[in-house]
């Protein structure tokens, strides 16, 4: 029973619970993290701890859920409506999310939400300790919703192995400094042994925050907390390359690709897929598309912008406003530039199964990613993986983490509307050979640095660090 265990902790479990007609439904997430860590948490007595996204109606229902999830190696942390409002919507998504995406003016600082954030991080800590981990085990904590958790766990065991990965950017220290509770947040994360980000810049911002805000010393890429070294490193996350490349070749997906192309009368398809979020530059993309229609009228009736927006956080006011604004702008563009035969933008606010996403990737002539700030962005990698044997051009914001890897995309500044419009023209007019050359170069990266590679690298490094720490202590 003393076998080493891996405990994964994230705000959301890789399964979402919903209740339809009185029946509980357990819906498996298709997300990158769920796929990547699937082979780990399902094995042996490893577990994943997180929120199932559902509020049970009574204690009995909680028990039923606990038992069902336990069979899948999943441990739920249930949140009350007040905790969802204060910790998830209020603090995580109205303080940390906007600040970490460089949107100072969107942040709403409320003391009571900070209290909820602390309370829920403590609840996650209790859930971890209820599993009785020991210092042979490895704990991998994911993302900004749980910044206090590394330290809370460390207080219970000085030697336990803790990794923290942040999937969103870490801003420059002068932006991070604006958060009234910045010291506690930093100290919280620094309970980990290894803190990792998608890009080199994020690691530098974090190191600066450690020195400038907490006054810590840096040794190489480590921050020194007393005699403990905390390693700050970069591990860009990948996708399940094989899954996406195989799906694009799948017979049913191919049939669907044909239908999609026919539906749009073989016009060129420019595709965008994002969660509803102001960090994704959806409005800027629409302005750029309008500018493209105005300045390159020869493309009228020749091109469709297929824009899928996946519902997200729509209880947060900023997101509701964005949705209204998108509705208005899409309506305006279609009404002004559309004709009886042609609607310039096909806009959907929906969640699609992965097969449909794959068909869209495979069908699209251009994929347009215009994030104003993005930790990584996996959509562009999924598009690339769907293009092994197909033409396509990726236009990628230079402000998305993925731009540091996908150097053969057409890179744009998402705030430069004219530059995006020009990039659309460049993509539409790109010779086939150039498309192939650029796509192959991007494919090589996405294929090699895939999700399994990412998981392996992170765990190997965490083990190595524990080893270094032990040697240092015995000296
Ligand atoms: C981003 C974050 C994740 C988060 C996801 C969906 O990718 O990095 O931590 O889970 O968005 O957002 P949601 O608020 O629905 O969990």
TrEMBL record:
Keywords: Glycosyltransferase, Transferase. One of its GO terms (molecular function) is alpha,alpha-trehalose-phosphate synthase (UDP-forming) activity. Signal peptide: none annotated. GO terms for biological process: trehalose biosynthetic process. Its EC number is 2.4.1.213. It is an enzyme of class 2 (transferase). GO terms for cellular component: cytosol. It catalyses: ADP-alpha-D-glucose + sn-glycerol 3-phosphate = 2-O-(alpha-D-glucopyranosyl)-sn-glycerol 3-phosphate + ADP + H(+). Pathway: Glycan metabolism; glucosylglycerol biosynthesis. Involved in salt tolerance by producing GG-phosphate from ADP-glucose and glycerol-3-phosphate (G3P), an intermediate in the synthesis of the osmolyte glucosylglycerol (GG). In the C-terminal section; belongs to the trehalose phosphatase family. Belongs to the glycosyltransferase 20 family. This is Glucosylglycerol-phosphate synthase. It comes from Sphingobacterium haloxyli.
